Amino acid sequence: MGRRFIERLERWEKRLQVFVVLLFSLLIVVQLLMTKDPIRFYLSFAEQMEGIPVSEHNLAVTDPGRQEVGSVKVKICGHFVLPQAAIYVNGQKVADFQEREVLLSVRAGDEIIIDGTAYLCPIVFQVSETSNKVCWPQVNHQVTTNASCVSLGQVRFE
Known about the structure:
The protein is of the alpha+beta class. It is 28% helix and 38% strand. It folds into two domains: 2-49; 68-157, no CATH class. A hairpin with a 2-residue loop joins strand 2 (82-89) and strand 3 (92-97). The chain has a four-stranded antiparallel β-sheet, with no helix packed on it. The protein has a four-stranded antiparallel β-sheet with strand order 3-2-5-9, with no helix packed on it. The chain has helices spanning 2-33, 37-43, 45-49, and strands spanning 69-77, 82-89, 92-97, 101-107, 111-115, 122-130, 134-136, 142-146, 149-154, 156-157.
């Protein structure tokens, strides 16, 4: 009786091992299929529920303050030129410091970021001039990069 019971357990163990191997193989196949875009879309429940992102340019109502254009002048304090330091407006590179001062054309809501990652020493940048409409960043506002990117913030108009 004991030997028969052990033989049955061994058969169930063998079936369980085959089942686990098949499940693991199925998992690998599904993961490989998820690398293809159309198949991933149909297999992924979360992507089916997501909507289409609304583009900022396709809005029916536009913000009239967004159309105003102002200027911000940023200068380097303590250095003459830093050609590898750059200024980004809304994530796009718009200028580098081939000269000591850089003049930017900005709109309300634009984010100004200074990239000083190429230089390991602290570098001070200062807003030296703004147009009459711009209330932020303020004139004489300073930021310091230390091998990092620093934001001047979002441009605000009066």
